[in-house]
Amino acid sequence: MNSALLDAATLQPIRIPDRAMWLQLLLFSPLLYIAWNLISLRRNIAKCRSMGVPVVWIPVDHRNFFWMLVQGYVWDFIDSYNRPWSSLPTYIRFTRPGWQFYDKGDTHVRLGPIWALVTPANTFINVSDPKAIEAMVNHRKDSVSPVEQPSKHCH
User: Fold this and answer.
1) CB atoms within 10 A of CB 7
2) What parts of the sequence cross the membrane (predicted)?
3) 20-29, pLDDT tens digit by residue?
4) Which of 112, 118, 124, 143 has the fewest C-beta atoms lying within 10 Å of its C-beta?
5) Are 102 and 110 in contact (CB under 8 A)?
C-alpha cells in the first residue's frame, strides 16, 4: 500500500515542499518584513512632512513584538557604555521605554512646540504649547477621526 498523501478531490499525490523551499521561506520572510517596515516608515514620514511639522523617526514601533522581546538586551548593551543621553542618535534615543523622562523636554527646545515621532506603524504628535493642548482637549469631539484604542490594535 502506498503511504503518499492524496488530495481528496483529485486523488493525486500531494507534493510536500522540499528543504530548499523551506530555506527560501525562512530567508525571505525576514527580508520581506524589513522591506515592509521601511516602506511603511517612508510613507509615514512623507505624511508628517506634508503637515509641516519637524519629524523624528525611529526604525521600530514600541509595540513591535520582536522589539519588545529584545529591547531589554539592546538597552543593557547601550547602557554598558555609559554614554550621556544627549549623545545617542535620535533614532536610538526614542526607542527606549520612558524616553520622555530621559529627554526632559530637550526635543521641544530643539524642534519647537510641536513635532512628530514617526514609526513604521504609528505617528505620535508631541505638543508642548499650553494653548494648543487646551484647544485639543476642549475640541476633541470635533476631530475628524477618533483616537485609536490601544486594546483594539495591539500587535
Assistant:
1) 10
2) 20-39
3) 777 888 888 8
4) 143
5) no
